[in-house]
């Protein structure tokens, strides 16, 4: 049945049908749009219910009345704040402010003088706490603030570890070159303890000391920091058996590729052979050699390798380890100072293993596992030395006697608490900017030719260049 409004004209009927079709399309499009909007609103409600931030609300014009524009502006301001809160990340930071003055501390007594500063015992007037106050040596520094002081401050601020000395703050004096580091106070350094003790540490106590030193060093190496002056006088102890690595004046960040480094680092008695032979590219292996020297010193109460100078130091090292060869130290001949070495025509064959074991006669009371660890740390080839992490897992620390708990560690009367520490009979650390001397190692092995005067040391005749 046709509509009563329809005309019999076919053209008119076609127009009406097209209008209906267009109307139906618009209706379906409107329904689809409403469906999508409802789905978005439902998704936003679910996100808010789960604690997630949804997209910022859309700004709407509430009224065409000019008086209502202020309400629109307020709404826009609220929407902007919501958007900024949803995208801006905030982090807690420390407060910036001037350094405190050194007069906030009462200096009680002088402890000792190091290569890069003077250390005193002091009391924080506001809290009454006893601290160590180190005045940096800034005199005769052509570049203003010395890089050694900057490195020490930077590394101590980054190296927050239970076996690294804690830097509390930096304070200033009346002049620009009066800069002090405020650190936790410790009653002893390891060198002073060994000098005062009648008997060396027990094996269980040696393991406790070594584990703490290596633990702190492993953290430093994981933070890409080389200490470069490890020795017993730079290891501090308190009366609770806790040990801390200190004196970061020669510490240096490293990376891959390594930065340009100076070869004149580490106190002579603890200096690795590659440094003595002129290497200017090195890594954390030099710290591990120093750990081996400290290990030997803990066993005997005396520094292991006490050379009078660089040539004598190399002589004493080779007397302990044996002369290097292409098997025990590949490529050592490429080092600058190794070219002058003249080896004896006949030399004793090295013991089996790589690295070879050190002579047991030097460490008669050390277990086989302990001798293995010592031999690895004092390997001539830097690549053969274990890392700090590998040392912590060594079987030497797992065999009996086990490391003594720190709570049961013996206590000792404090020299630093009442009087100046006795001057250590050890060489001083190299000074910054000091040039490495030109060395001639031709007389390390065999007699000095041509009637040259020489010194006898560690089983070899030396000719000093």
From TrEMBL:
Domain Protein kinase: start-end pairs: 105-397
Q: Which InterPro entries match?
A: CDK, CDK11/PITSLRE_STKc, Kinase-like_dom_sf, Prot_kinase_dom, Ser/Thr_kinase_AS
Q: State where composition is biased (Gly residues).
A: 444-457
Cross-referenced Pfam families = Pkinase
List UniProt keywords, sorted A-Z: ATP-binding, Kinase, Nucleotide-binding, Serine/threonine-protein kinase, Transferase
GO cellular-component terms in the record? nucleus
Q: Where is this region: Disordered?
A: 1-69, 397-465
Q: Which PANTHER family match?
A: CELL DIVISION PROTEIN KINASE, CYCLIN-DEPENDENT KINASE 11A-RELATED
Q: What is this protein called?
A: cyclin-dependent kinase
Organism ancestry = Eukaryota, Fungi, Dikarya, Ascomycota, Pezizomycotina
Point out the gene that encodes the protein: ppk23
């Amino acid at each position: 049945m046709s509509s009563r409004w329809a005309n019999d004209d076919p053209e008119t009927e076609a127009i009406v049908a097209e209008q209906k079709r267009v109307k139906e399309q618009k209706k379906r499009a409107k329904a689809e749009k409403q469906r999508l909007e409802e789905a978005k609103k439902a998704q936003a409600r679910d996100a808010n219910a789960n604690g997630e931030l949804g997209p910022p609300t859309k700004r709407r014009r509430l009224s065409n009345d000019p008086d209502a524009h202020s309400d629109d502006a307020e709404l826009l301001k609220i929407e902007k704040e919501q958007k900024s809160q949803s995208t801006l990340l905030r982090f807690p930071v420390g407060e910036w402010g001037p350094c405190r003055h050194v007069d906030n501390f009462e200096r009680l007594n002088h402890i000792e003088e190091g290569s890069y500063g003077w250390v005193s015992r002091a009391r924080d007037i506001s809290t009454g706490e006893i601290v160590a106050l180190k005045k940096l040596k800034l005199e005769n520094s052509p570049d203003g603030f010395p890089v050694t002081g900057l490195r020490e401050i930077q590394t101590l601020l980054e190296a927050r570890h239970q076996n690294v000395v804690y830097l509390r703050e930096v304070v200033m004096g009346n002049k620009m070159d009066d800069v002090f580091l405020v650190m936790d106070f410790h009653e002893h350094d390891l060198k002073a303890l060994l000098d005062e003790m009648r008997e060396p540490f027990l094996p269980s106590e040696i393991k406790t000391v070594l584990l703490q030193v290596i633990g702190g060093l492993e953290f430093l190496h994981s933070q890409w920091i080389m200490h470069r002056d490890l020795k017993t006088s730079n290891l501090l102890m308190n009366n609770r058996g806790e040990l801390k690595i200190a004196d970061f004046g020669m510490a240096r960040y490293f990376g891959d590729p390594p930065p340009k480094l100076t070869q004149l680092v580490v106190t002579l008695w603890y200096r690795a052979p590659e440094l003595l032979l002129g290497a200017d590219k090195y890594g954390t292996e030099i710290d591990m050699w120093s750990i081996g020297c400290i290990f030997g010193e803990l066993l005997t109460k005396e520094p292991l390798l006490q050379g009078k100078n660089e040539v004598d130091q190399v002589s004493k090292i080779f007397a302990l380890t044996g002369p290097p060869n292409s098997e025990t130290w590949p490529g050592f001949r490429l080092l600058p100072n190794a070219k002058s070495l003249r080896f004896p025509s006949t030399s004793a064959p090295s013991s089996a293993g790589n690295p070879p074991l050190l002579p047991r006669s030097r460490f008669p009371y050390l277990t086989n596992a302990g001798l293995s660890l010592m031999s690895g740390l004092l390997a001539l080839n830097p690549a053969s030395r274990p890392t700090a992490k590998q040392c912590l897992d060594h079987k030497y620390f797992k065999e009996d006697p086990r490391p003594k708990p720190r709570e049961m560690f013996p206590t000792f009367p404090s020299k630093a608490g009442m009087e100046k520490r006795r001057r250590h009979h050890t060489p001083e650390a190299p000074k910054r900017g000091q040039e490495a001397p030109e060395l001639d190692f031709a007389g390390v092995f065999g007699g000095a030719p041509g009637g040259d005067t020489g010194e006898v040391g560690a089983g070899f005749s030396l000719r000093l260049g």
